Amino acid sequence: MNIKALVPVRSGSMRVSNKNIRPFCDSTLLEEKLKHLLAIEELSGVVVNSNDDHMLEISERMGAETVKRDPHFASNSVSMSDVYVDMAENMDCEHIMFANVTNPLCNTETYRKAISQYHVMGKEHDSLASAAYVNEFLWLDGKPTNYDVVHQPRSQDLPPITRLTFAFCLLPRSLMIARKNVIGEKPMMFVTDEIEAVDIDTNLDFFIAEALYRKIVLEGRNPNDILS
């Protein structure tokens, strides 16, 4: 398969200012993500899609391909469905691995395993997406959604509900255009551990991710030792 990684970054982050190129462990989220992706031989290339010239310059300097995004598709008002189509139409490959920089603890080996799984998954699946288990007591509209209040289970016995982490999504380029999404109609859930599922969406997330990254990636500490 001809698979290229697609790394979307833009200026104008609402909740975490400049998060893609904000200092992160003496580097940036963008640079650290490209370092991991460019080391994956199974990929035919790594493409950074951005409206920001500085981010594109960083990406080119590191050896990634770049696509300058139209400002319209980098605004806060445009539908993500339209953004997905525009990004896919600017890729020259058969398959896409959509990879966010905001999941810095997803490591190179996990990407490789996901690509291998994508190669061999059956026709019952049309895409593959990173996910994590949700072991929490969930309520919606004043009612529990995943447990019986009268017979409350232990948290570890809750049903195995998964959430999408968007660390990576693998799918045919044509499907990304047709579905206007990075998730197909019949995705295979590739469950990662809770550390690799860490996603930066707030300043608190950024602080936690940076602390974990420094300990695990830069210092080589065992994640189990840190969390025990």
List its salient traits.
single chain, 228 residues, alpha/beta, Spore Coat Polysaccharide Biosynthesis Protein SpsA, Chain A, seven-stranded mixed β-sheet, two-stranded antiparallel ribbon, 31% helix
Explain this structure to me?
The chain is α/β, with parallel strands linked by helices. The chain has a single domain (3-227), classed as Spore Coat Polysaccharide Biosynthesis Protein SpsA, Chain A, CATH 3.90.550. 31% of the residues lie in helices and 21% in strands. It contains seven helices and nine strands, in the order βαβαβαβαββββαβαα. It has helices spanning 29-37, 53-62, 80-89, 108-120, 173-179, 203-218, 223-227, and strands spanning 3-8, 45-50, 65-68, 95-98, 127-133, 139-140, 143-144, 162-172, 187-191. The strands form two sheets. Strands 3-2-1-4-8-5-9 form a seven-stranded mixed β-sheet. Strands 6-7 form a two-stranded antiparallel ribbon. α1 (29-37) links the parallel β1 and β2. α3 (80-89) packs antiparallel against α5. The radius of gyration is 18 Å and the shape is globular. The N and C termini lie far apart (40 Å).
Question: Topology of this structure?
Answer:
Elements: E1 3-8, H1 29-37, E2 45-50, H2 53-62, E3 65-68, H3 80-89, E4 95-98, H4 108-120, E5 127-133, E6 139-140, E7 143-144, E8 162-172, H5 173-179, E9 187-191, H6 203-218, H7 223-227
Parallel strand pairs: 1-2, 1-4, 2-3, 5-9
Antiparallel strand pairs: 4-8, 5-8, 6-7
